[in-house]
Amino acid sequence: MWRIMGSTALAKLLIMGMGGLLAIITGRLIISNFGVDAYAQYGLLATLPALIPFADLGVGAVVINAISAAKDPVEDEDVTASVVSALRILVISGLCIAAAGVLFFLTGTWPLILGGSVLGIEGEIAATLCAVVFGLALPLGIAQRLLIGLKRTTSQTTSQAVVAPFMLGMVALCVILALPAGPYLALFSYLASVLVSLICLAMVARSLPGMVPVYFRRIFMVRRYPGVPTMGLAWPMLLQMIALPLAMQTDRILLSHLRGTDDVAEYNLAAQLFGMAIQVINAGGMVLWPHFSKARSDGVIHSPFKITVVFLGFGLLISAALAVLAPWLAEFMSSGKITLSLGLLLAFVLLTTLQAAKYPMGMYMTDFNGLRFQVLPIFSMVPLSLGLSIYLIGIWGPAGTVIGSCIAVFACQVVPNFFYVRRDLRRRAQQATAPVAAPPAS
């Protein structure tokens, strides 16, 4: 596990190092050639998928758990049925998202949702195109879940190396051709995600020979290949994925409504830099999901607490290093047009560290009981985070939204998860040492 986790984190570091450099150049190109307003809308639209991670309705958890516990995923009909059932749900969900995007455009709802950072009718068209591409490509994203379940997280991570060069190439092409593409730049990030999904699908095809065509061919053969119940495990994951974005991914929208474009742009830039650290942590943490899932199926007890200390230290180290470099990077990216405040940098350091601390415990809690336990605390995060963010924005601006998220993560995830894991480890240890009852005498 440590080897896989280390290689995944290293791969992510290398990718983020290269990608981060290219992203900085991309950001500079956007700001220099299309303006701060275009950069603000770009960040707002490019991160919309973070607001709807529940788009897969929680079936990703079903796929990962099913394939990681299978001895031979190719021959296991339960795995095939789980994947096909998940794909059917993703097709329906994706079509609904695409239709919703079109409906928002026709009813003029996008500015109401996204605030004043939307650049007129072109911004609304861009938001609609992003929603349509995201929705139609949603079923392809199952490939990444399959790779995680197959313990090929490193491969899934390396596939993302194409994103930054693709983004830079497309933005540079728009600059060279003098295209008026400012409102539409976020669309390139969605096309990059489609490219990543196709690469991951090719990797899955090599790991599971002949199965990818089978999965997609059976989607519409409902009578011949009935699905399996998925919502038993998926519903607590789904509820979490509905609540988490409301608590953690609404900062840009709040700033767009309550402050203005300059504050949205400042937050975008800081979030882009510290997002690189969080992605490295997430990549290493995802390795733990199939590890803990396999351990549960084998009856082995693995505590996440030692790994939590490692993650916490790594999160603090990498975020502190970014905070030191951030002022210089912001100066370069924005040509001096955007300045990052010390309060915003320190707030992101704290948030990144807390996100790192919660990850191993969260990956331990991926069975039904653990997922179900997390629902109430995470739903409690929504009013706490939103309320604190709205209040603190008036005091500290962009930093206030991050501080509100920090308080919510600590109170509603780190602390409850710690006590649940400690209690669950104690329970499982007692069950393992309990004497087996002797059979009744005949």
Q: What would your notes on this structure say?
A:
The protein has 442 residues and is mainly α. Helix content is 79%, strand content 0%. It contains 20 helices and no strands. The termini are far apart. The model has no long low-confidence stretch (mean pLDDT 83).
Q: Which key features would you list for this structure?
A:
442 residues; mainly alpha
Strand content: under 5%
Sum up the overall morphology in one term.
globular
Structural Rg:
22 Å
Largest sheet: none
Alpha-beta content class: mainly alpha
SS summary, helix count: 20
The sequence of SSEs as H and E is HHHHHHHHHHHHHHHHHHHH
Layout of helices and strands, plus pairs?
Layout (H helix, E strand, L loop, with lengths): L1 H33 L1 H11 L1 H4 L7 H11 L7 H30 L3 H5 L5 H18 L4 H8 L3 H6 L4 H14 L9 H22 L3 H7 L13 H18 L2 H8 L2 H26 L1 H11 L6 H30 L7 H23 L3 H29 L1 H36 L9
What can be said about this structure in brief?
The chain is mostly helical and 442 residues long. The chain is built from 20 helices and no strands. Helix content is 79%, strand content 0%.
